[in-house]
Amino acid sequence: MSRQRRATVSPPRQAERFAYYRELSIAYEGASLDIPVRAPDISTRGMFINTVHKFPEGAVLRICFRLSRTNVLIAARGEVRYCLPGVGIGVEFIGLPEEAQRAIEEEGAAYEAHR
After folding, report:
1. What span, in angstroms and rounded, lies between the C-alpha atoms of 111 and 53?
2. Considering the domain boundaries, does residue 16 fall inside one?
3. pLDDT, tens digit, 9 for 90 and up, residues 23-35
4. Per-residue pLDDT, 17
5. What is the pLDDT of residues 20-67, one digit of tens each?
6. Which of 62, 71, 85, 113 is positioned for an S-S bond with 27, CB 3.0–4.6 A?
7. What's the pLDDT score for residue 1?
8. DSSP structure class, residue 12
């Protein structure tokens, strides 16, 4: 009996993403790990985070980053929706505060206006 290898495919995005933020840090809730990360894009629903660290789907992370244009600091919780081993994780924000969501929307609008 042969096993078929399941292809890992990221799900379609529900919101447009952009790449202007910095100082990203994440912490796996319930653990004290220093996790090296690099994040290429963000939306009001979530973000993709490049990391070689493997997280299980459903893992909850504390995420903190600063928007580049407005300098707004965003602190949120996120749930890992998928993991691409050796590449990174797709994270959906959990209970993102209204003011943080607005700040991300404004940052995205400014990004699009200067593109």
Report:
1. 29
2. no
3. 676 777 766 566 6
4. 60
5. 555 676 777 766 566 666 666 888 999 998 888 889 999 999 988 888
6. 62
7. 44
8. P
10 found inside a domain: no
| Residue 40, CA distances (Å) to 3, 5, 45, 52 in order | 34, 28, 15, 14
Residue 56 inside a domain? The answer is yes
E strands along the chain, which residues?
21-28, 38-42, 46-50, 60-67, 73-84, 88-94
pLDDT of residue 2: 42
| Parent domain of 64 | 21-113
Strand-pair partners of 47: 42, 91
- Domain membership of residue 4 (yes or no) is no
Label residue 55 exposed, middle or buried (CB < 10 Å: 0-12, 13-18, 19+): buried
Q: Which helix (H) or strand (E) is 108 found in, with range?
A: helix 98-113
Handedness of CA 105, 22, 51, 18 (dihedral sign): positive
Q: What is the CATH number of the domain that holds 60?
A: 2.40.10.220
Instruction: Provide the b/e sequence for 27-44 (b: ≥16 CB within 10 Å).
Output: ebeeeeeeeebebebbbb
Single-letter amino acid code for the residue at 39: A
